[in-house]
# Entry
Amino acid sequence: MSVDVTKLTAHDASRLLASGDTSALELTQATIERISTVEHLTGAFVTITDDLALEQAGQADARLGLGPSPTLTGIPMQLKDNMVTKDILTTCSSKMLKDFVPPYNSTVAAKLFDQNAVLVGKGNLDEFAMGSSTENSAFHPSHNPWDISRVPGGSSGGPAAAVASGEAVYALGSDTGGSIRQPAALCGVVGLKPTYGLVSRYGLIAFASSLDQIGPLTKDVTDCALVLSAIAGHDPKDSTSIDTEVPDYTDVLTGDIKGLRVGVPKEYFVEGIDPGVREVVNKAIDVLSGLGATVDETSLPHTPHAMAVYYIVAPSEASANLARYDGVKYGYSTEAQGTMWEALEHTRQEGFGPEVKRRIMLGTYALSAGYYDAYYKKAQQVRTLIRQEFNDVFKKFDVLVSPTSPSVAFKMGEKTHDPYMMYLNDIFTQPANIAGIPAISVPAGLSEGLPVGLQLMANHLKEETLLQTAYAYEQATDWHTLHPDL
Amino acid sequence: MKLTSEEVRHIALLARVGMTDQEIQVMRDQLSNTLDHFQSLQEVETEGVEPTGHAADVTSIMREDRLETSGDRADFLAGVPRREGDLVRVRPVLD
# Structure
């Protein structure tokens, strides 16, 4: 039987594989075929690993032949190219790592490989995950499958475009200030940023360590729960990993949210949101209400300061994390002659792109003598206030709703000239990273023919509440069944 | 707030990122613009508020002191840009 992979979910694929109606090899071949048909339009990949994928598919089929196998066995997926994969090029979409072949696997890759998942390739991103449009990739931009003249969002633009276009059944992205949720919203797929510490960061190339978190990009909420169940869990190799029981997240997908307390924070419905986005989100809130949730307005007064906190904390951590790229141990090394210090400056001048340099500079400034208290310490104090505010609000509400992004996908090149304008894309997603809480974006409709995402936020480790709400919403609507005509 | 080119040059030196005069100018204007938007933080009352460095409430994770293999030496050396045999070659530290 030939399979149409463009709309295939992991839970359907798993069923077809278990019943023998298809094979991992067949699914993988169909996915590779799909990649060869549309990749020149989407630019979703940095590296396509077709030979490896076919080999892994063969191994998956052997395992499936032996009896019941893990849910993700034999299913083609993509990993964002900032998660290291042993013996497979991992570039972070940077010239600095253009030839970097890691000697080990990230924990998430190892967990998926243990299930005999099939890696079809590594997903494009904004260099070092810094950006909101995937135009900052050192290699090529990615395009939105709904309209290739528009951006897919970022920084996980490759993974979002790959899932939306059927070049992978699901993908893993990383989210530091919205990098899973914003591209998921702009490409019409589901994207989850888990609670900080729920998924191991071991082998995720560091951007801002107190904010970074890996999560799934999928075609629906069931897949999101499946993939999260596969990658979550304590890891001794990540010192910030939470030691908690990981449930089977699909168990909570009942569709029943009667009595759920939903808060609508007024600071997330300010001027500057596209009217079309506002309308879609308001309708989505009505749907939740119609399902028996109680909906009330609430307030998180420090929200307008989240962006300043984010753009001080994240670049500060980045400036420290990216100090390791010295052209000595691995990665790009300048050809220029000179002393160690001169070579170091040349290596970093030639190896990093403009946005990465901007953030290293911003972070170095915020941490430098004389400015530390005014910027870094101040931002960390306001971070405390933002966390407390969420804590207080979650005493009254189970879930908070907002738009994921203030606009639909914008035109390529539209915001590249003004870094600050680009930064505004993530105003609704950054607070969740600052507070470390989980947040999900689900498709909620179209505006101007382009997807709009609904963001749901919940308290620490309340992924089950989040997924339960998202699933109930998804079952009551059919936005997740819309696919781009590519 | 307006940064001077000298200040930007100083930050570039601290960050060890080489920059041309033109890059310094562009960076000066873009950083100044971004920092302007951050001034609103100064309005927030934070007297006595503890700073948050991490979103997770985990501290000082200790592992058992046990010998483990953590990868193959040859694999790690394979990524070194400049080497002589099993040695990593570095540039002159002294002028």
